[in-house]
C-alpha cells in the first residue's frame, strides 16, 4: 500500500492482493521505520468497520488509521471503480481530503515492476 500525504490530503493506493485482504480480513497496514529506535516508526492502516456509516481517520501516536464502511469497501473492491473519495470535516481545523484508490499498472514499466497492480484502463488505447 502506498501512502501520499500532501497538505490536507491523504491518498492510499492499493494493489489487488491488498484489496482482497481488506475485504477478507478487514485490515491492511504498512509500517515505515525512520531510525533504529522502537518509537521511530509510522504505521498506516486501512480498515473496514461494519458499524461505520462514513469514512473516518483515526490518529494515535505512530499510527494513522483510515476507516471505511465495510459494505462500501466490498462494493468498491468488486467493481471497476478506481477509488473512494471523501472530504472529512475537522471542525475548526478545516477539512481533510481522503482518497483510496486501486493502484494501476504503469504503462512504461516492466511486468515485474507492475506486479499485483490493477490493469491500466488505457492499456491498448491508441491516442
Topology at a glance:
Blueprint: E1 2-6, E2 9-14, H1 16-25, E3 27-33, E4 41-49, E5 56-60, E6 63-69, H2 70-77, E7 83-89, E8 95-102
Parallel strand pairs: 2-8, 4-6
Antiparallel strand pairs: 1-2, 3-4, 5-6, 7-8
Structure, explained:
The chain contains two helices and eight strands; from the N terminus they run E-E-H-E-E-E-E-H-E-E. The chain is mainly beta and 127 residues long. It has one domain: Gyrase A, domain 2. Strands 1-2-8-7 form a four-stranded mixed beta sheet. The protein has a four-stranded mixed beta sheet with strand order 3-4-6-5. Strand 7 and strand 8 form a beta hairpin. Helix 1 runs antiparallel to helix 2. The longest helix has 10 residues. The chain is globular. The two termini are 30 Å apart.
Mean pLDDT: 89
Text of the CATH class? Alpha Beta
Question: CATH topology, which one?
Answer: Gyrase A, domain 2
End-to-end CA span: 30 Å
Which word captures the global form?
Answer: globular
Helix content: 10-25%
CATH architecture: 2-Layer Sandwich
What is the radius of gyration computed over CA atoms, rounded to a whole number of angstroms?
Answer: 16 Å
| Biggest sheet strand line-up | 1-2-8-7
Q: Regions with pLDDT < 50 over 5+ consecutive residues?
A: none
The SSE string, one letter per element, is EEHEEEEHEE
Number of domains: 1
Structural class: mainly beta
Instruction: Report the portion of residues in β strands.
Output: 35-45%
